[in-house]
Structure formats: C-alpha cells, structure tokens
Amino acid sequence: MNEPSPEAKGPRPAARVTVLTVALGVALVALCLVSAGTGAYHIPAGDVLASAAHRAGLGGHRLDRVAESVLWDVRLPRVVLALLVGGSLGCAGALMQGVFGNPLAEPGVIGISSGAAVGAVGSIALGLSFAGTWTVTVCAFAAGLLTVLAVYGLSRSGGRTEVVTLVLTGIAVNAFAGALIGLFVFYADNSQLTQITFWQLGSLAQAGWPKVLAVLPCAAAGLAVAPFFARRLDLLALGERQAGHLGVDVERMRITLVLVVALLTAAAVAVAGIVAFVGLVVPHLLRMAAGPGHRFLVPGSALGGALVLVAADLAARTLAAPAELPLGVLTALVGSPFFFWLLRRTRSRQGGWA
To answer: What is the DSSP annotation of 20-80?
Structure first.
C-alpha cells in the first residue's frame, strides 16, 4: 500500500502547478457566477456581480425585489454550500490517500459516510426531533464522528495502528452500519422511507444560510489545518520507518488527520447526504496532472472538489428542470466509470495486485 504511485517518478515543474491553480480558481469563479444566475429566473452574470458589489459597499447596484430574493435567499446559499461541501470532500480525500499511502482510499473507507448515514436514517425512522429541523443534521454529524473514533479505537493495538487493520476494521464497521440502516428502513413508515431515500441520494435542495453557517466552522477549521501536514505527508510517502527517521511522529499525525478527515466529511455528509466519489476522483486527477506533492495536492483538491460539486449541483437542478436530479446519483454516475478505469490502469501498470 505504501508503494509510490507511478506519477512519483520525478518532480513536475512549478509552473504547471501555478497554471493549474490559476485555472482552477478562474474556472471556479466563472462557474459560481453561472450557477448563481442560472435557473427558472435568469439573472445575468453582470447583475450577480453588481448585486454582490452593492452588498459589499463597492459600488454596483441593487436588483429588483424578486431578483434580489432569488439571488440571496435561494441561489447564493446553495452555491456557497456546494463550495464548502465539495472543498471539504476533496481535501478529505487527499488527506486520506496521503495517510493510507494509497490513491484508491477515500473517507468512506473508515466508515465516516456510513456512520453519518446511520445517524440520519435512525433519527428519521425513530421520529427524533430534539433539535427541530436540525435533528437529522446533528445526528448525522455526531454518528459520523463517533464511528471514526470507534474504528480507530478498535484498530489500535499496542499503542499503534496499522493501516491494514484500520482498513479492515472500516470494512467491518461499514457492513455493520449497512445492517443498522436496513433495520431502520424495515421499521420506517412510508413517509419516513421517502425522507430516508432522498437523504441517501444526496442533495443541496434544502440549502440556506443556516446550513451554510452549520458546516462553515468545521469546513474552515479542517481546510485551515490540512495544509500544515503537507510536508509530513510527503515524508510518509517514503514509508513509515523512513518518515519516523526524518522526525515525523507517524502515529500522532495519523490520529490528527483521521480526526480532521472525520470533521470535514461528517459536516459535509450531514448537510448534503451521501455524495460519493468526489474525495476519490478529484485528488487522483490532480495527482496525475501535477504530481504527488501534497503542498499542492491538499489545497488543490479542496479547490477541485468545490469546482466539481458546484458543477454537479448546477447539472442536478438544470438537466431535468423543473424536476431536480439527486446530486449523489450524478456524482456516482460520473465517478463509478472513472473508478473502474482507475482500477484497470493501476492493475495494468503494477502487473496485478498480488
């Protein structure tokens, strides 16, 4: 698992990283403007910029009442939530792949997504309402974090944690979570089944500023901390023993990064449901484009994840308008074939898995 990827054969020019960063940033800004203006009520990109500038006190002008309401109460909260959720999932994927030393790893491997799903489905099936409209979100977040802590605690032995044990424990916990979800679904009534189904399909349809504020602290904290581990992740790619000789406390870094990944993923899943493959596909694409260095890969994956999710959400609400496609279905439709191609490519380059 700790073999370096084929892309690690040599450093890529810094200019390529710079160009890629600028391209991602420009594409993200352009896509946000398009997404904010596209829908049943069309708002030109110039008006979006003018309204934003007016609110920021930088000139511009105020739009008419309907356009202002559509833009600031419906579209922009959704765009900002897509940025936070996509950025969190992309960054979490890059961290997981660095910690596991495997480009096929993603946050779901250690049970974060399935644990959050148990919390959300359980709260719906049991009719919990202790936090009002936030009950599902709170339960999903808490269950996701508790699942990661349980996986990590179960996989520790003799004061250390082996990656293989961590992965196998995650597989077992994922299976157990699937069984719990099945039990909750079995006891749910028809209206609860509908709610459970839509939550599991993933969506940003209920986006609003309160949800943005709910995910913002976790996303900001995780995204701010992650880049500080980039150099140590590069050293870990040389192997645990070599990293230890170079001064990296591998066990402490692994615990910290698993908690950071849990924070990012649980917060994202709690507000958006199950959105698969962003954390797997985005870091790997950037690794192929710019090399395995984590100084770019970690923040770049956050940028790329945000770009992918804003695009996916725009497609989800426009491809079948006035109906809305499930966000998680769209990302899985694109991500699954890519994952299959990735498996074939990795297998052919390594000459097999044995």
So the answer is: HHHHHHHHHHHHHHHHHH-SSS---HHHHHHHHHHHTTSS-----HHHHHIIIIIIHHHHH
- Cα–Cα distance list, 273 to 85, 204, 255 (Å): 10, 8, 25
**Residue 161: beta bridge partners?**
156
298 Cβ contact list (under 8 Å, min separation 6): 91, 94, 95, 98, 226, 227, 229, 230, 233
State the residue for tokens 């950071």.
260
Give the pLDDT confidence score for residue 204 in this predicted structure. Answer: 87
Q: List pLDDT tens digits, range 6-30.
A: 444 544 567 888 888 999 999 999 9
Residue 207: what residue type? A
How do residues 120-139 score in pLDDT, each as one tens digit? 888 888 888 887 777 887 88
State how far the Cα of 218 lies from the Cα of 85, in Å rounded to an integer: 10
Q: What is the mean pLDDT of residues 48-56?
A: 88
Beta-carbon count within 10 A of 122 CB? 20
Tell me the per-residue pLDDT of 219-228, one tens digit each, with 9 for 90 and over.
898 899 999 9
For 217-286, strand residue ranges (E) read: none
Q: What Cα–Cα distance (Å) separates residue 163 from each residue in 29, 93, 99, 206, 285?
A: 38, 16, 9, 37, 23
* Segments of 148-225 assigned E as strands: 156-157, 160-161
Tokens of 159: 């004061």
Which pTM value belongs to this model? 0.86
Residue holding tokens 């709910």?
214
Distance between CA 236 and CA 98 in Å, rounded? 8
325 and 204 Cβ atoms separated by less than 8 Å: no
